[in-house]
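Researcher: I'd like a structural prediction for the single chain below. Treat it as a standalone chain; there are no partners to consider.
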Amino acid sequence: MPTKFVPEERPVVSADDERNRVWIFGTPVSHSVAPALFDVIFPALGLPNHKYSTSDCKDLADKDASWHVEMAAPYALGSCVTMPLKLAVMAHLDELTPQAEAIGSVNTTYWRTGADGKLVHVGTNLDTAGVGNSLLTQLCGFPSPFPADAPHSFAPGVASALMIGGGGATRAAIWAMHAIGLSPIYLVNRDAEETAAIVKQFAAWDLRPIESVAAAEAALAEGDRTGVKLAAGVGAIPSIEPVTDAEKLVYEIARTLFAHKYDASAAPVQPKGFLQLPKAPVHLEMAYKPRMTLIRKIAEDRGWKTICGVEVVLEGCFEQTYAWTGKVVPLETREAGRKILRQE
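Model: Treating it as a single chain, here is the predicted structure.
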């Protein structure tokens, strides 16, 4: 069952496969909740011998680094890669998916069999799935895994989005929002040069930097004229009180955008197969410490439906499971995973 973010058919593994080990590599990773999640996921899928572990790995320059050693082992099923390895790992893979190439970083690797029968080590970025599936759960009205006939994108010219931040997570979020038909995407960030680099990286897409409150008001007015509703947003900045003028401006612009009147009651019904405009706009926070971040509270206080960043972690793990095993995590197991994260 290919998904929007892992579109290739993945072979289904079995309980007695030799390749049954997965790790999260990076530093620090000892605090990761992922092993506890996969201790629930793998047995529920009939894979009691499969194991997800942590491995501290600071760089890949040394061939004795744990990532190189474990990925060369016959029991390696794949890897999750976090900071500071998301960029460095790309040079050590056989193939990159389109989203990994577009975003410029990898957080998941898996194996596939090439036409010549040899194993190909593939790198992808499933932060995209964490963001995209979290938004889709609210926008289409179904929890993941989504029904086959559930709409996965807006029709062109229907819905726009807001992106707050400028780091690597921002790029994955932009890719995900573009994939579900949100355009234009308004970029709010404290660093104009960083934002310009993102616009250049995704030059074919309609990304619009918003660098002042007046620019935000003008963008909203244009949306009113064209009928394109600001229907979604993603925040990817730490929940820290702003100190510098640039940081304070980000919050002022965000307040302006979140406060804009939203009314989809008179919007035309969209054709079958496309998302309808939500009753309230939806905002996803990628940060989740604390659960109610500063930006999330601003959005919620202004009538937006908000999503906690733990959902990004969960949805990413569910999609990684499909990439590694070819199995879709059932709804009841997903709910068990949510209970684990709520205890963190």
